[in-house]
């Protein structure tokens, strides 16, 4: 018999696999209609599937071969916490950085809240500093 914790972790792994493959439609269907995203740099939570999709599309545009390696995952109650390593080739603009063709690797700590069989909320803490250091132009004179 599968426990709620196991079902929730399977849901998150399924979402990661569909995101990795570029099937944003499938991934979006795994989110509740009133999905909430808590992301660094925003004072208030963001709401709606379209908000998630815009962020996911930006990542896939910048890193089309994005891979997501789950390094650790655990679930308690309605929450799933994940440590992931993301890797990919920087082939499109990301934030203010044009494509560099460089391979990147960075970590993220992510927490998801599950309602029923859908992802209702996320808190993500990607190591953006590490990512930017890998794609930013070298300082002049180096």
Blueprint of the fold:
Layout: H1 4-21, H2 24-29, E1 31-38, E2 46-47, H3 49-62, E3 67-76, E4 79-89, E5 103-115, E6 118-126, H4 128-135
Parallel strand pairs: 1-6
Antiparallel strand pairs: 1-2, 3-4, 4-5, 5-6
What can you tell me about this protein's structure?
- It is a single chain.
- A hairpin with a 2-residue loop joins strand 3 (67-76) and strand 4 (79-89).
- The N and C termini lie far apart (59 Å).
- The radius of gyration is 16 Å and the shape is elongated.
- It is 32% helix and 37% strand.
- With 142 residues, it is α+β, with helices and mostly antiparallel strands.
- It has helices at residues 4-21, 24-29, 49-62, 128-135; strands at residues 31-38, 46-47, 67-76, 79-89, 103-115, 118-126.
- The chain has four helices and six strands, in the order ααββαββββα.
Radius of gyration from CA coordinates: 16 Å
Give the overall shape: elongated
Distance between the termini: 59 Å
Query: Which structural category do the helix and sheet elements fall into?
Result: alpha+beta
Helix content: 25-40%
Q: Ranges with pLDDT <50 over ≥5 residues? A: none
Order of helices and strands: HHEEHEEEEH
What portion of the residues fall into strands of 2 or more residues?
A: 35-45%
Strand order of the largest sheet: 2-1-6-5-4-3
**E-strand count:** 6
What number is the mean pLDDT?
95
Major sheet? 6 strands, mixed
Instruction: State the assembly state of the protein chains.
Output: single chain
Per DSSP, the total helix count is 4
